[in-house]
Amino acid sequence: MHLPLQTLAAVSLLTLVDARDGSPRRSGTTVSLHATQYGSVFDAPVTIGNQTFQLLVDTGSSDTYVMAPGLTCINATDNQIIPEADCLYSNKTFRPSSSYKNIPSEMFGTQYGAGLASGAMAYEKVSIGNITAEHQKIGIANVSNPMGDGLNSGLLGLAYPAITAAHPANHTSNETYWFDRSVYSPLVFTMHQNHKIDPYFSIALARTPQNESRSFGGYLTLGGLPPVAHSEFTTVPVEIMKGVPANFTSGKKTRAWWTTTIGGVTYGTKGNMTTDSKPWQAFFDSGNPLSILPSAVVDPIHALFSSRPVWNDEIGGYIVDCATKVPEFGLTIGNKTFFHHGADLIYQTSAGVCMSSFVPSELVGVQGLALNIIGVAFFKSVVAVFDFGQHQMKFAPVLGAGNGSETSVGHLSSPADTSAASTISAGRLWGGFSLSLTALAVLMT
Fold this sequence. Notes:
Layout (H helix, E strand, L loop, with lengths): L7 H11 L10 E8 L4 E8 L2 E8 L5 E11 L6 E2 L18 E12 L2 E14 L2 E14 L9 E4 L8 E3 L18 H7 L6 E6 L9 E8 L11 E4 L21 E4 L1 E6 L2 E5 L3 E5 L6 E3 L1 H9 L6 E3 L4 E4 L7 E6 L2 E4 L6 E3 L5 E3 L1 E3 L12 E2 L1 H4 L2 E6 L4 E6 L39 H7 L2
């Protein structure tokens, strides 16, 4: 079933954005996403050289990388080598094409709170839909912690250049991948610089049935809007993240993540809602299954769950009964409160265990930093536009998404059937969260 046509609001915004500098509109492209891990990880088809891979769609990092043959998989806790299959990437690995060119003066090394990947830097032809960057820097990873989902072969980074993860070739310590960066232009920035797209992209993630491990995942559109009916947009500026040392962002205080100030939160049950108007910064991260928020927000929300979430030190998250009833919850962004759908406040794992979608940022900091992050639960109720030309983000509620606590099949429909199969993975997580599904299964027996 195809989606409804865009609303008048969508069409008028598209015209406004494309014509804002008086230049002719460049072409855009839309690709369908695959949802895996019960709707917590979202992959897009990306062609590198002459091969097409599924890559995790990640607004929380900037590099595009793909797995090389003979990957060395290492345990995230002790750096011991483990079987390659434990990294859970697809069996499809990168083979150099005629357009491949190695960069001997640089190496690739990226690190998240729960994992890392490293290898070579290279130039290669990269395409998304019908848009191609002929000479794009990418990472070719030959070392990784377990961060796959059984379908993807790497990651598509959509954040700013300041946190790209190329380093001088003599950079050997994986403990300092946060620093010593050789900044380059990420894929969507290159596509704009080459006059292939207007300087923005948009995402609409699908809400998937709770018991389906794989399904249609929504849309990624470069230089345009996805074919999803929505209401009016709210616009907010992209800010420099406060409190982050300059050495995290290539020695400059600059835009790095898709960051803005959240004006407050509203939560509760019908007829008994509470609003906390204390502002705080956060960045939007489509690659994170969880939202990592201030404890002053997370704790009162959890207190309203019908079954109180229980913190588990081993996994660094809250386990909760899958049938738990949840309160209403909304984030104030700009002049509007965006409510989550209740079904998105609980994150199901393939171990048959459910977790709260919220974790306090004070408990999962990285390198001493406690950063607030808006994860995939938020994305499932909005069309999100990321504008790196005007350094703005725009959000519009998806029509028919609802905000109640009832379970819903979702507000987006697939243009074609997709198969469902069981996989095990945690995806790409920021923060100290390290989801061991084996550990979860043991805990629940």
